[in-house]
Amino acid sequence: MVHHIVMWNFRPEVPEEEKSDRMKEMAEHLESLVGKVPGLLTARFVPAPLSSSTHDMALVTTLEKPEDVAVYGSHPEHVKVADTYVRPFVCDRACLDYEE
After folding, report:
1. DSSP, res 49
2. How many domains does the chain have?
3. How far apart are CA 68 and CA 91, in angstroms?
4. Among residues 5, 7, 86, which one has the least CA distance to residue 43?
5. pLDDT one-digit tens code per residue, 51-67
6. pTM, two decimal places
7. Edge-to-edge strands of the sheet including 90-99?
8. CA-CA distance, 81 to 64, in Å (whole number)?
């Protein structure tokens, strides 16, 4: 099993009053990729990290095998969600992949 964890901050130009709605959209659409992307077993969006965190939000996913990370990243459904609901609003992306 592979864990793929991605963290982001909001872009400075995203108004504070929009952040909650943006995170709800991200969560809904990213989590909906389970069952659509081969190898993607779980997806959980983290919208409210502790104040000690360095990022505003995270996505924690599990995939079947290491090769599935690349499949997930290039899958058309993932690209559509990322290009529509995530990338326009975030910066400072950090990623950690590990296998158990």
Report:
1. -
2. 1
3. 24
4. 5
5. 999 999 999 999 999 99
6. 0.94
7. 40-46, 57-63, 2-10, 90-99
8. 21
pLDDT for the residue numbered 5:
98
* Residue 82 domain boundaries: 2-99
**pLDDT value of residue 81:** 98
What would the two tokens of residue 73 be? 């990243």
Integer distance in angstroms from the first to the last C-alpha of the chain?
Answer: 6
The CATH number assigned to the domain holding 28 equals 3.30.70.100
Structure tokens at 75: 């899958």
Give pLDDT tens digits for 6-55.
Answer: 999 999 999 999 999 999 999 999 999 999 999 999 999 999 999 999 99
CB 45 within 8 A of CB 57: yes
Distance CA(98)–CA(100), nearest Å, equals: 7
